[in-house]
């Protein structure tokens, strides 16, 4: 083998392989994106430094020694390349995991965003937990658990006082109290509907419930007055028609 050629090929192989003796902190699965890149750059910089160092010190006497070590160094070079490949693969995997994470996070956040729903003829924004709380309270009422429903609607109004469901929650709370024969409590609850939500469709029904509660309390005069208010203020509602029918029984 020609001495110059041998010096060139063996020296390059040795320089690359020599890095196998350097401490290597990269391990598959333990690096994140930035750490893997830094490890690769560190390996390459050390290779370049050793290339310069050996090139400066190489002479004819060192050629034979390097040639004898060539086979061993070649296997170490292969191992070093394998480690670089592992790190490169780790970068790719980390990038994919990050992409998957943000896609999943975006999907989860969208589920938590307020949804536009129709409530008493109005389009309102309702949060997920808000909708669940209202539905749960209404389900209790429909299931005949009037005490539980009344408490649930009261809790709902404390948690979501500005909710698009506030008028309905207040109305159903009054109905839950009426169902428990707490007529005074029912009147108080329905008066809040009439006062705070006069333009809501539930206001007419609230007046009808107030009149029913007053009739149960044997206060026919008050019940008649409430029905007159209902008929005058909400004349074209089903509640007003029911009110007219009940007026006759109060005479």
From TrEMBL:
Domain Outer membrane lipoprotein BamD-like, first and last residues per copy: 129-251
One GO term of the biological process aspect: protein trimerization
Chain coiled-coil ranges: 40-97
Localization: Periplasm
Signal peptide boundaries: 1-28
A family per Pfam: TolA_bind_tri
Domain of life: Bacteria
InterPro entries, alphabetized: BamD-like, CpoB, CpoB_C, TPR-like_helical_dom_sf, YbgF_tri
YbgF trimerisation domain: residues covered: 46-116
Gene Ontology CC terms: outer membrane-bounded periplasmic space
Alphabetized UniProt keyword annotations: Cell cycle, Cell division, Coiled coil, Periplasm, Signal
Entry-linked NCBIfam families: tol_pal_ybgF
Family statement: Belongs to the CpoB family.
Function: Mediates coordination of peptidoglycan synthesis and outer membrane constriction during cell division.
Record-given protein name: Cell division coordinator CpoB
Source species taxonomy: Bacteria, Pseudomonadati, Pseudomonadota, Betaproteobacteria, Burkholderiales
